[in-house]
Amino acid sequence: MLKNTQLEDWDRENFFHPSTHLAEFARGNLAQRVITTASGCHIEDSAGNRLLDGFAGLYCVNVGYGRPEIADAIAAQARELAYYHAYVGHGTEASITLSKMILDRAPEGMSKVYFGLGGSDANETNVKLVWYYNNIRGLPEKKKIISRWRGYHGSGLMTGSLTGLEAFQKKFDLPLDRVLHTDAPYYFRRKDLDQSEADFVAQCVASLEELIAREGADTIAAFIGEPALGTGGLVPPPAGYWPAIQEVLDRHDILLIADEVVTGFGRLGSMFGSDHYGMRPDLITIAKGLTSAYAPLSGSIVGDKMWKVLEQGTDENGPIGHGWTYSAHPIGAAAGVANLKLIDELDLVSTAGKVGAYLKGALNDALGDHANVGDIRGEGLLCAVELVEDRDSRSFFDPKKGVGAAVNAALLSRGVISRAMPQGDILGFAPPFCLSESEADEIAGKLAEAVREVL
Ligand code: PLP
């Protein structure tokens, strides 16, 4: 392996890192970390550090690192057939098998899978399919998409617009038009602390109704949402939220896109978040957990109702004009098949539910009565600890203080990776599903030390 200093120089000189303060990186003020190897829930870097990855990369290495079953499937596929395209009806054993495996596991009423590469492009596909659908139905005015503040749907032009976090839009001339935002179902951050959960849900529903009335249902095509908010703060919805939203959408002929890039394939302790929360989506976005990040692959699962209209559209207009070179890439598909088999064989979906409950319990035991811990929440292996300046009044720290980032750094110095979520002092935990109880205890114990060091 090359010397660390050589790699660090090349890194600073050549590599444009995503989501990075470019100037600080160039000045050498940001930590450079060259990751070399990984196994189970741990990664190692070239400086010899071994770190417990409490965020599974970017909540994507769901089955854990170093699984030979997936590595072997990828190698075998590369030797046998590294690539062929999927245009005009071409397929491979891996892509065809994977489409069946996905639909066997998907919520009811789903018809077909369109394969892409990552969550962003899958959501771009979904928006195009929604527009196409309404054009074929003779409703060319019905095109706007409603998303939620704090939603995250990717970094593309449209998906960056749907994202409800300013950091991903600033100076990029986003959002584009045809995008509307409504309330985030973030009960912990409700304005009126006396408001019941049921009243809060009713308020979310009322603001959605107001938005639809203001814009006109005949201009609104779809609503997109993550079953549980991810990047916007790792927030499971309050009880009854999704059925209540679903009722409004059905009444106004508005499609539902469930963005299951994070929640799909087990992270909440159910195969899909849609089933977990009683959503009935028309489109489902999948990525990360589909291959556990062993290869880039995403998908748009299209429901029966839309599929019929898409077929009709091609009868009227010819082949659908949407495709990527790497749609259904055989290596990604082979990784997906091996990954889903492994999830079944090791019963990792129910494991995620059980270990997730254990982790939440351990976090509560370690930090539940700390004066600056406002909320410990989670569903399955999607957990968050939200820090507050004052627990009783629920006042938040001045964002400029960077309290969440400081705790994150203090935890990292103890060998545990969490994610300081981009908005608010929120430490996120979304480890691989193979997390052991002792690793969960380690996360909780070291987080408690890090919180005490900073606060
Ligand atoms: N949708 C959700 C809910 C996500 O969390 C992400 C990424 O974190 C995306 C879409 C975008 O996926 P990608 O980064 O693979 O483009």
Which key phrases capture this entry?
455 residues, globular, 7-stranded mixed β-sheet, 15 strands, binds pyridoxal-5'-phosphate, 4-stranded mixed β-sheet
Write a short abstract of this structure.
The protein has 455 residues and is of the alpha/beta class. The chain is 40% helix and 16% strand. The protein has 15 helices and 15 strands.
Outline type? globular
Overall pLDDT metric: 97
* N-to-C CA distance: 41 Å
- Beta-strand percentage range: 15-25%
Kindly provide the radius of gyration, computed on alpha-carbon positions and rounded to a whole number of angstroms: 22 Å
Spatial order of the strands forming the largest sheet: 4-10-9-8-7-5-6
Bound molecules: pyridoxal-5'-phosphate
Number of helices: 15
Question: Fraction of residues in helices?
Answer: 40-55%
Structural class category: alpha/beta
Helix and strand element order: HHEEEHHHEHEHEHEHEHEEHHHEEHEEEH
Q: Using DSSP, what is the number of strands?
A: 15
Largest sheet descriptor: 7 strands, mixed
Poorly predicted ranges (pLDDT <50, ≥5 residues)?
Answer: none
